Amino acid sequence: MNNQYASLGICEKAIECVERAELALADTFKRIDNIEQLNTSRVLSAFIDEGIAPRHFAPTTGYGYDDAGRDSLDRVFARALFAEDALVRPQLVSGTHAIYTAVAGLASSGSTILSATGTPYDTMENAISNGPASLAGNGVRFESVELDGHGKININRVLKQLRELKPELIYVQRSRGYAWRDSLSPEGDMAALFSAVKAQRPECTIFVDNCYGEFTSDHEPTLAGADIIAGSLIKNPGGGLAPTGGYIAGKKALVERIAMRLTVPGMGREVGSYAGSYRPFYQGLFMAPHVTAQALRSAALYARVFLSLGYDVMPAPDAARSDIVQAIRFDTAEKLISFCKSVQASSPVDSFASPEPWDMPGYASKVIMAAGTFVQGASIELSADAPIREPYTAYVQGALTYAHGKLSLMKVVSDLMRG
Ligand SMILES: *Cc1c(COP(=O)(O)O)cnc(C)c1O
Fold first, then answer.
1. Is the pLDDT of residue 178 over 90?
2. Least confident piece of the model among 128-132, 289-293, 353-357
3. Are 84 and 229 in contact (CB under 8 A)?
4. What are the start-end ranges of the H helices in 186-278?
5. How far is the CA of 55 from the centre of ligand 1 (A)?
6. Distance 201 CA to ligand 1 centre (A)
7. Which residue is closest in CA terms to ligand 1's atom 6?
8. Closest CA to ligand 1's atom 7
9. Is the pLDDT of residue 254 over 60?
10. How many Cβ atoms sit within 10 Å of the Cβ of residue 218?
11. Pocket flag, ligand 1, residue 123 (CB < 6 Å)
12. 3: pLDDT confidence band, cut at 50, 70 and 90?
């Protein structure tokens, strides 16, 4: 056998191992490709219905009054995400910022937010309770109902808390984040929760942290009854091309209200320019169903290979996925760290760098991040990260192309076999 990958440090045994796993995934890949087809159709319709033209890509400056590129990008995103309206902004600096802006824009002082999916993603912790600008500092109470022993929503407990705490807003996290649990599907888990919540407390607003979930299914939480969703443009919906930014989408009246928190009451969405081209945001959204499918295929391959090597993985290789994240469990911190180093070494950018655990702003424990990405920190690009805490779990996600995901896995397995 002529090993064309030898220059990447990939050995014959690793190629065999990965290609065997790939053969077993034919049905899973077919399902993923079908989702891509449906989502591409919806995104394409959104572009056509909004009459997108080159003039929408033009940069703007200053206040950004009548910024056609900005305003039509909002509408294309809204259509693509089954929403009435959306705010898509490079000024939303991250997913956390988009989530905080949405939630802080809706929660009034003295009100309560109830998380139905346990403690939110690490970066939200400070936003909820740390200091005068946090939700707590603004007089908003935040309570959580933990997931049950199987990582599922404890609907009975949520309904009980709904009666007792009378929350204004229910907070739901679609992705596993840094937790050993399944992602929530819009058509299954969320639909069940949302109809139960609305039946008991119709005035309650349902918010979903949709990070990592966009286009993994042909449903979005909005279709299942969520009122507002938010996410990052350097994850799925940016298609690997958006250079920065976040989005908030949902019911029109709520989006308008959040726009006042995004900028200034009385100005809202009417202001905000972007001196770069809007083209990467549009083109990124157009690419997003495809790139997300590539990431899903890579995740399934990582799962199948590591399962075959005797590791615990979550989700299982053939599982229906509602986020792009694959969790893999290692028995020591050293193995976890060397896994991340192998991923870094197989990246197109900064392949020579060696990631080390560090105190990343907003995270509770030290975190190691392998991200040899074109857009800094973009996790729709192949990346692996892990909080350094027991049990030692790596969260790997992304890959702009399946071929790259597969090559990185061959590299990871080669390094593992070499020990
Ligand atoms: C990535 C992520 C966030 C935060 O997004 P950043 O862009 O990193 O700030 C929030 N929630 C979930 C589930 C995420 O995956």
1. no
2. 128-132
3. no
4. 191-200, 252-262
5. 32
6. 28
7. 95
8. 95
9. yes
10. 17
11. yes
12. confident
Q: Which two tokens stand for residue 137?
A: 């500092």
Does residue 9 surpass a pLDDT of 90?
Answer: yes
- Token pair, residue 337, equals 């760290």
**Nearest Cα residue to atom 2 of ligand 1:** 211
pLDDT tens digits for range 349-405:
999 999 999 998 777 789 999 999 999 999 999 999 999 999 999 999 999 999 999
CA 384 – ligand 1 centroid, Å: 14
Region 322-348: mean pLDDT is: 96
373 ligand 1 Cβ < 6 A: no
Q: Atom of ligand 1 at shortest distance to CA of 174?
A: 13
Asked if pLDDT for residue 125 goes beyond 90, the answer is no
Question: Which atom of ligand 1 is nearest to 99's Cα?
Answer: 10
Please give the distance, rounded to the nearest whole angstrom, from the Cα atom of residue 19 to the centre of ligand 1.
Answer: 32
Task: Name the token pair of 298.
Answer: 């890579």
Per-residue pLDDT, 377: 94
Rounded Cα distance between 196 and 199, Å, is 5
pLDDT, average across residues 47-75: 98
Q: Token digits for 65?
A: 């009054």
Q: Which atom of ligand 1 is nearest to the CA of 379?
A: 1
Residue 163, C-beta contacts closer than 8 angstroms, at least 6 positions apart:
200
Strand pairing partners for 88? 247
How many angstroms from the chain centroid is the CA of residue 34? 20
Ligand 1 pocket residue status of 115, Cβ below 6 Å = no
Residue with tokens 């083209």: 279
- Which residue in 160, 156, 170, 165 sits closest to 113, CA to CA? 170
Rounded Cα distance between 392 and 369, Å, is: 14
Contacts of residue 155, defined as CB under 8 A and 6 or more positions apart, other chains included, come to: 192, 193, 196
Average pLDDT of the chain to the nearest whole number: 96
